[in-house]
Design brief:
mainly alpha, two-stranded antiparallel sheet, about 65% helix, transmembrane, NCS2, membrane, Nucleobase ascorbate transporter
């Protein structure tokens, strides 16, 4: 006879406005020593993107190791400023604001412009192309600043439902798959152990070995990086890579980054340190496209950070406020000259989930580390010289957590509806397929598939349609707003009724607790 199943065991898991199981939410804080260590861990995680972007862009500008180290220091400094500003006056979510892969295409477009071919000295070419990027970034920042502070982005957020938000949030993480295992596999003998050790420390050992304090799951990144970095150093010292190809040595050895020799001991980055910015209209338009894509991807990361910080869904006015501060962050990137705009660091959102610590204080501590190590260049360069395959191992787990936040939004939707499954399936599929087509076209032909008479328009199309989250977001939002919109079940199938109370700031009392501005500023800058 079959065993009897209790009725309550067949009931679906209850829907949760706030993610349970988080040890510290946005407003709660671990002890100061623990917050400092966790902040340092967030700093380590954001270093990967901070190093990768200048490593790609600076050589195309004519710069060497010294220029690359300077740009990394500047990018770190601006990231620290932007993270503090966003956590204090923006969305107030526990997010790190760092460099963005989205800006690599426009940065390369500027760096390879024919107008810089007249500069034969590499240093001189680097300086002038950097000034061109600065001017483009500063003008492009006006777009997100206006969209955010005028409340226009609030309108977009208010028409989002859990159904139309899930695909872009999912693809903010999943769309970065090319930066995960492929980066790890550049030196698989240190990248793969890094991934395995990170998974063991963060997921398996805490269940096998019960401790009074959650040490392994909370500090798994620091422990795994230290172990694998030491292992890579031993391989380097013992000559394991002495006779290997140059690319293998660059990826595997711990002494090949060139950052330590190129970095200064003490230097404070300052505005216009490369000289007066220059403005070219075509460069500005391409940068504006990147700023818009960055805003879309950051919105997905904001939604995910709210889940992992165990707070309610972020009201549209708060995300719009954060968009304005993100625009100011791009303006600061242009003022200081970082060769990249600003966005929410996806890997740090994933780290919130791994540690189960969504404390705002921890993120602010990480910003202090960014500022500190950006000024003390040599010390910061030591940490920034972590082999990139180890960073790839971190990305595999952090981007996966980010993707899971998008899947978590589906709890609000009716997955037994064919309308729901169509919108989900098509938006996710096109979000992966369209960027793959654009990227593949560039690889095979050296240029994008859009061949108009305007080079900057071609690049704008490439920037927009190589972003999986942006493509998925456009498709999902369009379908959700137009498909069977008058059907009686559409609102509930999309989960709109769950987010209705968060459309306006004052409709849910918890919004005041989580998102109000400090120092009584909400009185002068109210959210609506």
């Amino acid at each position: 006879m079959a065993p009897q199943v209790k009725a309550d065991e067949l009931v679906p898991h209850p829907v949760k406005d706030q993610l349970p199981g988080v040890d510290y939410c946005v407003n709660s804080n671990p002890s100061w020593p623990e917050a400092i260590i966790l902040g340092f861990q967030h700093y380590i995680v954001m270093l990967g993107t901070t190093v990768i972007i200048p490593t790609i862009v600076v050589p195309q500008m004519g710069g060497g190791n010294e220029e690359k180290a300077q740009v990394i220091q500047t990018l770190l400094f601006v990231a620290g400023l932007n993270t503090l500003l966003q956590s204090l006056f923006g969305t107030r979510l526990p997010v790190v604001i760092g460099g963005s892969f989205t800006f690599i295409i426009p940065a390369t477009f500027v760096a390879l412009s024919s107008r810089y071919n007249t500069y034969l000295d590499p240093r001189e070419r680097f300086i002038h192309s950097m000034r061109g990027m600065q001017g483009a970034l500063m003008i492009a920042s006006i777009l997100p600043i206006l969209i955010g502070f005028l409340g226009l982005w609030r309108i977009v957020i208010r028409v989002l439902s859990p159904l139309s938000a899930a695909p872009p949030v999912l693809l903010v993480g999943l769309g970065l798959y090319t930066h995960g295992f492929p980066l790890l596999a550049e030196c698989v003998e240190i990248g793969l152990p890094g991934l395995i050790i990170l998974i063991l420390l963060s997921q398996y050992i805490p269940h096998m070995w019960k401790l009074k304090r959650p040490i392994f799951e909370r500090f798994a990144v620091l422990l795994s990086v230290a172990i694998v970095w030491a292992y890579a150093a031993i391989l380097t010292v013992t000559g394991a890579y002495n006779n290997r190809p140059p690319q293998t040595q660059f990826s595997c050895r711990v002494d090949r980054s060139g950052l330590i020799s190129g970095a200064s001991w003490i230097k404070v980055p300052y505005p216009w340190q490369w000289g007066a910015p220059k403005v070219d209209a075509g460069d500005v338009f391409v940068m504006m496209a990147a700023a818009l894509v960055s805003l879309v991807e950051s919105t997905g990361a904001f939604i995910a950070a709210a889940r992992y910080g165990s707070v309610t869904h972020t009201p549209g006015s708060v995300i719009s406020r954060g968009a304005g501060w993100l625009g100011l962050g791009i303006l600061l990137s242009g003022l200081w000259g970082t060769a990249s705009g600003s966005t929410v660091s996806v890997e740090n959102v994933g780290l919130l989930a791994m540690t189960r610590v969504g404390s705002r204080r921890v993120i602010q501590m990480s910003a202090i580390f960014m500022l500190f190590f950006s000024v003390l260049g040599k010390f910061g360069a030591v940490l920034a010289s972590i082999p990139l395959p180890i960073v790839g191992a971190l990305y595999c787990v952090m981007f996966a957590f980010m993707s899971s936040a998008g899947l978590g939004l589906l709890q609000f939707c009716n997955l037994n509806s064919f309308r729901t499954t169509f919108i989900l399936g098509l938006s996710i599929y096109l979000g992966l397929s369209v960027p793959q087509y654009f990227n593949g076209y560039v690889i095979t032909t050296g240029d994008g598939p859009v061949r108009s008479g305007s080079a900057w328009f071609n690049k704008i199309m490439q920037v927009i349609f190589t972003s999986p989250a942006t493509v998925a977001g456009i498709v999902a939002l369009f379908l959700d707003l137009t498909l069977a919109r008058k059907h009686v079940n559409t609102k509930k199938d999309s989960g709109r009724h769950w987010w209705a109370k968060f459309k306006h700031f004052d409709k849910d009392p918890r919004s005041e607790e989580f998102y109000s501005l400090p120092y009584g500023l909400s009185k002068y800058f109210p959210s609506v």
